[in-house]
């Protein structure tokens, strides 16, 4: 099993464990969405075309919102959305609108995630005439060598029920020789 398959399976297992806990739950995935595959749950992914994207308002615009809002309202079963997508859904709505249905699955091992190079917003701090506007779910962007990353704004408790993805503990045994 590859690392991506293992990473995906953790989220898939949590969805399976929690899908009956709420009527028509909305699973919000806060993690490396570009590395998560939902091959068996693909029909439940709200918008597969934008699920793994790390962009902003240019994709998650009012037309996009209209399409996904209708899907969320009319869903007869659970839905899976990325934190990026859901951040824009609640930006257009009252954040409490879906609160009772939302289960946020949070990759609690990290707060920094990879970003596509074309979504990286170059630092314009030297140019006072331009205002840098990051996507609403991002706190910062940075480059390390030739790779790009963003730090995520943590969800507040008002978004819904938050479930840490990596919470299983293992007992350590000290072996002395």
E-strand count: 7
The helix/strand class is alpha/beta
User: What's the main sheet like?
Assistant: 4 strands, parallel
| Inertia-based shape | globular
Distance between the termini: 33 Å
- Tell me the number of structural domains: 1
Task: Give unreliable regions as ranges.
Answer: none
Query: Strands of the largest sheet, in order across it?
Result: 2-1-3-7
How many helices? The count is 3
Hey, roughly how much beta strand do the residues contain? 15-25%
Please tell me about this protein's structure.
The chain is α/β, with parallel strands linked by helices. It has one domain. Helices cover 22% and strands 19% of the residues. The chain contains 3 helices and 7 strands. Strand 5 (138-144) and strand 6 form a beta hairpin. The two termini are 33 Å apart. The mean pLDDT is 89.
Layout of helices and strands:
Layout: H1 3-18, E1 26-30, H2 62-74, E2 79-82, H3 83-92, E3 102-106, E4 112-114, E5 138-144, E6 147-152, E7 161-164
Parallel strand pairs: 1-2, 1-3, 3-7
Antiparallel strand pairs: 4-6, 5-6
